[in-house]
Amino acid sequence: MNHQMQLMHAVRAKTSFDPRQLTYVIYGGEDEVKRRETILERVELAAGMDNNKLPQVYVGQDRTAQYHDGLRTGKIMLEENIKHRHQFFTIMSVTHSLINTSPFGVHDAMFIPTIQLQGNLDQQAHWLPLARSGAILGAYCQTEIGHGTFLRGLETTARFDAEADKFIIHSPTPSSTKYWPGGLGHSASHAIVMARLVIHEKDHGVHAFLVQLRSLEDWKPMPGIELGDIGLLLGMNGANNGYARFDHVRIPRQNMMMGQAKVARNGDYTPPSKEHAKSSYSTMIYARALVAYAAAFQLAKACTIAIRYSTVREQGNLSFDAANIVEKAIITFKSQHYRLLLHLSRAYAIHFASRSSLRMCEDLVWNKDSKSQSMLAYLHITTAGLKAYGTQVAADGAEDARRCCGGHGYSLLSGLPNIVTELSSNATLEGENYVMYQQTARYLVKQAKLIREGDKENVDENVAYLQLGYEHLVTGKDKGCPYSADKFLDCKKLLDVFRHRAVRGIFDCEEALRTSRKNGRTGEEAWNEHMIQLIMAARYHLEYYILEAFIHHASEIHDQKVRRVIEYVCRLYALTTIESPLSMGSSGFIEDGYVSSDQLRAIGHHVNITLEALLPEAIGLTDAWNFSDASLQSALGRWDGNVYETLLEWTRQLPINRRSRMTGGVEVEGYQKYIKPIIAARSKL
Ligand SMILES: Cc1cc2nc3c(=O)[nH]c(=O)nc-3n(C[C@H](O)[C@H](O)[C@H](O)COP(=O)(O)OP(=O)(O)OC[C@H]3O[C@@H](n4cnc5c(N)ncnc54)[C@H](O)[C@@H]3O)c2cc1C
Question: Which fold has domain 105-271?
């Protein structure tokens, strides 16, 4: 064991709880953890993911090689799902990235769910066996060059030809080109294409159509379809995001998804029934729940790498006495300790909250009775908001974790840049975050209006806290936070503080919009004027929702030692959301004077106490996520702490260094073409 490994071993031995028990909490039980380990081991082996060798992703591939690497691992995961009859790789990949990093990711995450959720029984019976067996591979084509967020702006048309009983799919303008869909470039045989349904020149808005893109015989694009890859992206380069243009492509009438809206043989159009109107969004709702869920794992992955590295990385100490330097692990420096544990607490928070919404999704999205349809509105705004919050917090946290690793964090070999760039895309895909926050805000403000107008019957019971909060606001009962300093150690009391901020923020918005309208602004102008305030109010609600879910999940943990530590993590999440300079909406707790400056000081003090208590648990809290070394793809994040030798070994294995070693340590082409002429010219002087 070298020095770094000894350090890691010693720190791990100090963990007060059994991380394995926490792993069971994270993944939902011992059986699930064992199943997961078996699957991951099988796939890591098949993909040749050996941590002693430089991971394939770092060998310096060109565009095509990156795509082929995506295909290689994507194929292994797809076939694993099919062969072993599970859905393990429908949310996350073998490296715990969102599955959309694979060219076949959207097939499972969007294509199949759209058929399930929007197809009728005949369509499901026809298409699902083909899709599930891998006989066809699907993409999900919604975004166009000209429009992504604003769906009603999509231009692709599906015009009904009554005589031929077919739809004609067409891209009328350059801006109507489908652009961005994962797998669309060269990897999908079929796609769900979102297009405007036009019957007898009447536009019925955007609907879903299943279009065959490529021949299953020779993989050539079908007549009238132009397809291609959209080139190198900031990250996710294995995913083969592509573009498509349609030139009057004919598809059978039966290829419109007709689970809700229908077009009859004679061209009669039946819109979705009122209670099913929201169902057309159900694929997006489900996808957003998945994105939020995966974001927690990606942030946890970044924290695992940075915390492990910070445990074995020693760099001076805080003593300014040069004669007496005993170097300290960098995690013991408060700035490092604070940032990393704060981000880790957020990974746990997003995990528990998104698990709740995913469960709700499974109950509601897949269960199409009318009661569940009425709940879809709430699920819609919850998943939209959580997706925005989770991906934003995870992306910011992962980038900060990367910086916590100093220079080595900037190297791809740390594994961190890939996590950061993947997370960066999550702010945009499946709904741009700032637009998602507004969907949450719109719903909340509507509820606030109902409450203020006394229309109790129509208030959604899921946001009943607004009703009580409003009464407190009106009666002045909630003027100042009533708790003494010691009460801020109790997460339930902290939840009251979060509740107050959410209620006040939402009713303030409702009032601001009303005042703007009174002053002559249109609804749209008023909304735009107060947009930032509305987005913050949505975040206040989400942080309340997240803390509530966190407290609930923590209380359900049976193992006492694990529960105690997770309650500390929950407390750290709550306290730092209130007082941290890294928290976006912390001023919302104090702007109406609810939390006083003395109380804020007490909260700062509790943050320190909680951080101290959690420092010895940091390694256990990262081990519990159960990431294998191979899946982390990081020289810095090794479980055993052997980071320096691994970094050196991987560096030696880089193709540029391997090749130059074979030619006596000279990178011949660069030397001959550029360096030699420079030296030669100067030597003549
Ligand atoms: C890696 C990746 C994978 C993708 N995969 C797919 C896929 O498989 N299938 C698919 O169809 N698409 C896919 N997309 C596209 C993605 O869904 C869209 O990019 C996304 O919905 C955002 O739309 P947009 O690009 O039009 O952004 P825009 O809407 O143009 O956003 C640009 C800016 O305008 C702001 N903005 C826009 N509207 C409003 C508003 N109402 N209020 C306030 N601000 C606003 C946004 O906040 C943002 O800051 C993918 C994108 C990426 C990056």
Answer: Butyryl-CoA Dehydrogenase, subunit A; domain 2 (2.40.110)
